[in-house]
Design brief:
Strand order of the largest sheet: 1-31-32-33-4-3
Largest sheet: 6 strands, antiparallel
Keywords: Repeat, WD repeat
Number of helices: 1
InterPro entries: JINGUBANG-like (IPR045182), WD40/YVTN_repeat-like_dom_sf (IPR015943), WD40_PAC1 (IPR020472), WD40_repeat_dom_sf (IPR036322), WD40_rpt (IPR001680)
Structural class: mainly beta
Radius of gyration: 21 Å
Number of strands: 33
Strand content: over 45%
Distance between the termini: 49 Å
Shape: globular
Length: 471
């Protein structure tokens, strides 16, 4: 069994839009690759951020913001069939039989939309895009897929036999593979459930004020879901949204247990670790810690402390439970880290990107950071120090999501990992990375590394503010 570590994070969104409506009759289904092709007329359903000089523009004062992050600057003419096969294209030649190298293995290319989310489990890879399709790849070949007719796929998480997907329309959908045919996936639920939504909508006390005096039922996100996380015992599912809240769901019966008013702006990332601690990062520039406590027959989350407060938006979080480190990616391209077993003391800053850090993943003693500069930095942790082993280059667009798992076919004593990276260039790239790589080793798809072991202050920097806090 492969060890699986994933991190799926979405572009931060510091401003609100209107309340999203729920369509209980939406058509959601699994498709087989052998079916007759049909033309996709999918529209890009995420209103792009606007570069503006006005005071309310979330991007107007960010010198590090990459114009490629604005989807309006990307080719959206993905009219190819959503059911046609995607090619597996190898970019590595003359590979030795022991596969002991670090570099690009190949690419999964589908001209149907930007890749927003990834999840890996064993020999299966799940990819989500703005086409609303979730593609399933097996051993690097397209195997199956399933889709929803509303809401681009911003987050994917695997919990046992169930796959949870978070969407732009504020819904969480639950899928399960058919017991008769492993290539068929069925939707077995939606969060919140229609029954729970109707029951909650009857009581006026279940409504909360959203924007411009509009009310919504508290159990439903009224803006895009940015990320998902699951508790270590897989009993609780957490969803975070651009509506500034985190919702807690009981996985056994899909009941919404709690809604946390977590931040002053969009929540971009959440992660659970270290005996139930919940970490949240937001466009308001803060990282907060929430502790879970028993309350009667249930549990409730209480604010513990603010780990980081800065002007730049927090865009990604990752935990490394094996070594008690937590990592935070920022819109200024930096990666901060803290040590849990040292009372959350600030350990330092990793400086490897020129533009915003968009996603993070941790596996073994390695940390991976994907950025709007199209690159992936590979960091190795040696004690409390971090060394940049390599920079993986190959994407032509911002790296939006990462999934990492241990290589099952590794040989020798060196630990190897397979890294999947999804990008706004509409491709997923597959990399092999050796954990014991010599820092100055030159390999395919890599650039010279640097050593950044020292701790730095994380004082606010006014020049890199990304979002205005809402009052």
């Amino acid at each position: 069994m492969r060890k699986m570590v994933t991190e799926e994070n979405s572009l931060h969104k510091p401003a609100f839009r209107g309340v999203l409506q729920s369509d209980p009759n939406e058509d959601e289904y699994s498709f087989r690759l052998s079916h007759t092709s049909e033309t996709s007329h999918t529209n890009y359903d995420r209103p792009p951020p606007r570069l503006s000089s006005g005071n309310n523009s979330p991007l107007s004062t960010s010198p590090t913001w990459d114009p490629y992050l604005d989807p309006s600057n990307w080719d959206q003419s993905h009219q190819t069939s959503p059911l046609s096969r995607s090619p597996w294209t190898s970019h590595v030649e003359n590979i030795s039989t022991n596969y002991s190298y670090t570099g690009l293995m190949g690419s999964l290319v589908r001209e149907e939309g930007h890749i927003y989310s990834l999840a890996a489990s064993g020999d299966l890879l799940y990819t989500g895009s703005d086409s609303k399709n979730i593609r399933v790849w097996k051993n690097h070949k397209e195997f199956s897929g399933f889709k929803s007719n509303s809401g681009l796929v911003k987050a994917i998480i695997i919990a046992g036999e169930r796959i949870f997907t978070g969407h732009q329309d504020g819904k969480i959908r639950i899928w399960k593979v058919s017991g008769k045919d492993p290539s068929v996936y069925k939707r077995i639920g939606t969060l919140p459930t229609l029954t729970a939504y109707i029951k909650s909508s009857i009581k006026p006390s279940n409504y909360i004020e959203t924007r411009r005096n509009r009310n919504a039922v508290w159990i439903k996100h009224f803006d895009a879901i940015s990320c998902l996380s699951i508790s270590e015992d897989q009993k609780l599912l957490y969803s975070a949204s651009w509506d500034k809240t985190i919702k807690v769901w009981r996985a056994s019966d899909s009941k919404c247990l709690e809604s946390i008013n977590a931040h002053d702006d969009a929540v971009n990332s959440i992660v659970v670790g270290f005996n139930g601690l919940l970490f949240s990062g937001s466009a308001d520039g803060t990282v907060k810690i929430w502790r879970k406590e028993s309350q009667g027959k249930g549990t409730k989350h209480f604010f513990s402390q603010t780990l980081l407060k800065q002007e730049c938006a927090v865009t990604a979080l990752a935990v490394d439970p094996s070594s008690s480190f937590i990592y935070c990616g920022s819109s200024d391209g930096l990666v901060y880290f803290w040590q849990i077993d040292k009372l959350l003391s600030h350990g330092g800053v990793l400086r490897g990107h020129k533009l915003a850090t968009l996603c993070l993943a941790a596996a073994g003693n390695l940390i991976f950071s994907g950025s709007a500069d199209n690159n992936i930095c590979v960091w190795r942790r040696d004690g409390e120090d971090h060394i940049c082993l390599s920079v993986l280059r190959g994407h032509s667009g911002p790296v939006k999501c990462l999934a990492v798992e241990e290589d099952q076919e590794q040989t020798g004593d060196d630990q190897q990992f397979i890294v999947y990276s999804g990008s706004l260039d509409k491709s997923v790239k597959i990399w092999r990375v050796l954990s014991q790589l010599v820092p100055n080793q030159a390999e395919v798809g890599m650039s010279p590394p640097q050593n950044f072991p020292s701790a730095c202050s994380f004082a606010s920097q006014g020049s890199c503010r990304v979002g205005q806090r809402r009052k």
